[in-house]
């Protein structure tokens, strides 16, 4: 019988996920200066797929390394929303927008997941969790506005693409929860991302056929390639594994609300590494976000189980 992880391990892992993911917007934006979005996505998920295939070979017996036939249709849709849709919208949107706007828009993830989990899984974690999700979003919005996000002069096209990326990520989270409950975090993450990389391959290779893209890739600096390694190994492997592992033990909305901590983590890292100031307004907003996250966590013994797999899209 598998043991349920302790609260310290579970929430500590989700906090680790928050900090690992906090640098994604900055790292991706820096890499996009030198490498076009679709090529960057191809390299990112190629790196992640190699690592995940190695994990499957290491951890699973030979006959269990591919998804079961009866679940392959569900994994196809999970792969489609998780990589081609999410990443095309995210990387192209980020190239046209700013890291601050991306962080703000990804703070919508918990609200979208809450609605999708109710619609697809009939999973509603309760009024207290819904209130916590709304409170955490309000705190995140307050923090980002205090840090200078100007909603009136934002790059509209990029922001609209980022909203579509957030929607795809929320669908990936909600659709993945019943699969994680059945097959586990590592196989679900690996099968969805390797399958998504295969679906993304024609898009990425087509991008590399463009002479200007090949020229930019050929002259990319070590910093840009280091960013690809970070996005491939840290964001797409370590962070995704923790995300789905958390989904195995908590309701989707309870896991998603940790997204609201990422802008705070990014600001904290900027303070530690670069000396960026921490203002009283930031501390107030951070306290609001943390209060919302805590409120959203109903007692784990009452966390709702997945009642049924989502219908085929």
Which labels suit this protein?
single chain; 313 residues; 14 helices; 0% strand
What do these coordinates show?
This protein has helices at 7-22, 24-32, 37-59, 72-96, 99-106, 109-121, 127-146, 156-183, 185-208, 211-218, 222-249, 252-256, 262-274, 280-296. The protein is mainly alpha-helical and 313 residues long. The two termini are 33 Å apart.
Low-confidence stretches: 299-313
What is the helix fraction of residues, given as a range? Answer: over 70%
Shape: globular
Helix and strand content put the structural class at mainly alpha
Spatial separation of the terminal alpha carbons: 33 Å
Number of helices: 14
Extended strand count: 0
Q: Report on the biggest sheet.
A: none
Percentage of residues in DSSP E strands: under 5%
Order of helices and strands: HHHHHHHHHHHHHH
Mean pLDDT: 83
Rg over CA atoms, rounded to whole Å, is: 19 Å
Helix-strand layout with pairing:
Elements: H1 7-22, H2 24-32, H3 37-59, H4 72-96, H5 99-106, H6 109-121, H7 127-146, H8 156-183, H9 185-208, H10 211-218, H11 222-249, H12 252-256, H13 262-274, H14 280-296
Helix pairs in contact: 1-11, 1-13, 2-11, 3-4, 3-9, 3-11, 4-8, 4-9, 5-8, 6-8, 7-14, 8-9, 8-11, 9-11
């Amino acid at each position: 019988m598998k043991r349920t992880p302790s609260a310290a391990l579970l929430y500590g892992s989700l906090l680790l996920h928050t900090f690992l993911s906090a640098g994604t917007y900055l790292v991706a934006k820096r890499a996009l200066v030198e490498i076009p979005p679709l090529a960057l996505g191809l390299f990112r998920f190629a790196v992640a797929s190699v690592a995940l295939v190695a994990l499957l070979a290491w951890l699973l017996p030979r006959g269990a390394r591919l998804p079961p036939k009866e679940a392959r249709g569900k994994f196809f849709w999970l792969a489609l929303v998780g990589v081609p849709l999410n990443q095309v919208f995210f990387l192209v949107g980020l190239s046209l927008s700013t890291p601050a706007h991306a962080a703000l828009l990804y703070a919508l993830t918990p609200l979208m997941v809450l609605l999708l989990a109710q619609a697809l899984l009939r999973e509603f974690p309760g009024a207290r969790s819904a209130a916590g999700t709304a409170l955490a979003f309000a705190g995140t919005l307050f923090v980002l506005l205090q840090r200078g996000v100007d909603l009136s002069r934002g790059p509209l096209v990029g922001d609209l693409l980022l909203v579509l990326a957030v929607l795809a990520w929320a669908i990936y989270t909600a659709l993945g929860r019943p699969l994680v409950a059945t097959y586990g975090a590592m196989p679900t993450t690996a099968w969805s991302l390797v399958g998504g990389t295969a679906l993304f391959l024609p898009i990425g290779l087509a991008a590399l056929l463009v002479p200007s893209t090949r020229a930019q890739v050929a002259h990319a600096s070590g910093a840009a390639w280091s960013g690809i390694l970070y996005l491939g190994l840290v964001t797409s492997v370590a962070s995704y594994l923790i995300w789905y592992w958390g989904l195995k033990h908590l309701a989707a909305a309870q896991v998603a609300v940790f997204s609201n901590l990422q802008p705070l983590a990014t600001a904290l890292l900027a303070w530690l590494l670069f000396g960026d100031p921490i203002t009283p307004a930031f501390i107030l907003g951070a306290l609001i976000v943390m209060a919302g996250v805590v409120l959203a966590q109903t007692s784990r013994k009452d966390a709702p189980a997945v009642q049924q797999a989502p219908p085929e899209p």
